[in-house]
Specification:
alpha+beta; Beta-lactamase; 5-stranded antiparallel sheet; 3-stranded antiparallel sheet; 11 helices
Length: about 300
């Protein structure tokens, strides 16, 4: 089987809809599934934010060692650890960027997003790079409050408490279904095509959009990813993977750069999915896709 057939075979029995873009950066061999379709990025949108941050660091607008005071009224729920720290704690910009990626910290993400000027600035930077199908419209707070049915509102201590209470009630009455009922793939959301996300990963890996130092900074953070039950899951433990996961409702994603052993090169893989019956199903499918690509490029 060729690479295309192997990828299609990996998801042929899945109930969800998958978008996949795989490319070997040396041989240029690639294969895709639904590569032009727009999918909800979920937390994989933190990769465009990270590259925008490093662009601004290069421009001297932001310092990675700058310390930011955490404010109780700016906490963002969901994944992450910063919301659990004491009020008035101080964290460096570099540490926030790291937490944004490696544990998908939503509070850190929205603070970094504020530092770079908000969603519009991230989307504009993507367009400057020719990535017209990476659309960044919402913060983590905006997305989370929308999917649980809260009215649009600025982040606040009261809003944070309301969110937690709303989720507590929703869990007993079909929380995932509530999320699934929201159209998360409209162009008013954080959506991307697998093709353009794959191109972004390629530019990061090839150090084409940022300086070598900044590119290494981005890759160093992505290589520290703590959630390893998707792209890396079926790969040999020593294989290095720089990646970022994303999940909300039936959406299960992972996008990354895989460094092959034995000087076999590098490949990028962007997998978006929606309509999964269970998160584990989507995770296992992503793992199979990555393993299929890995085995193909290794000649197995």
């Amino acid at each position: 089987m060729n690479l295309q057939q192997k990828l299609e075979n990996a998801v042929k029995d899945e109930r969800g809809t998958f978008g996949v873009a795989v490319k070997h950066l040396g041989t240029k061999e690639e294969a895709n599934i639904n590569e032009g379709r727009l999918f909800q990025m979920a937390s994989s949108f933190k990769v465009p934010i990270l590259t925008t941050l490093y662009r601004d660091v290069e421009a001297g607008k932001i310092r990675l060692d700058e310390r930011v005071k955490l404010k109780w009224e700016e906490r963002v729920p969901g994944s992450g650890v910063l919301q659990q720290l004491d009020p008035e704690a101080e964290v460096s910009v570099k540490d926030m960027a790291t937490l944004m990626i490696i544990v998908s910290d939503n509070y850190a993400t929205d603070r970094v997003l504020d530092l770079v000027g908000g969603p519009k600035q991230v989307e504009a930077y993507m367009k400057e790079q020719g990535l017209n199908h990476i659309l960044v419209k919402q913060s983590c707070w905006d997305l989370l409050t929308q999917v649980v049915g809260m009215e649009p509102q600025p982040v606040s201590a009261e809003g944070y408490d309301t969110f937690l209470k709303t989720v507590e009630i929703a869990v007993t009455s079909g929380y995932d279904q509530k999320i699934n009922d929201v159209d998360l793939t409209s162009t008013e959301h954080n959506v991307a095509s697998p093709r353009d996300m794959g191109k972004l990963l390629e530019m990061i890996a090839q150090k084409e959009m940022l300086s070598e130092s900044s590119s290494n900074g981005v890759l160093d953070i992505m290589l520290k990813q703590q959630f390893r039950n998707r792209i890396p899951y079926l790969l040999p433990e020593q294989v290095k993977v720089a990646h970022k996961t994303g999940s909300i409702g039936s959406v299960v994603n992972d996008v990354g750069i895989v460094y092959l052993p034995e000087e076999k090169g590098i490949f990028t893989i962007a997998v978006f999915s929606q309509g999964n019956s269970f998160r584990r199903e989507g995770e296992q499918a992503i793992a199979r896709l990555a393993k299929a690509a890995y085995d193909h490029f290794m000649g197995n």
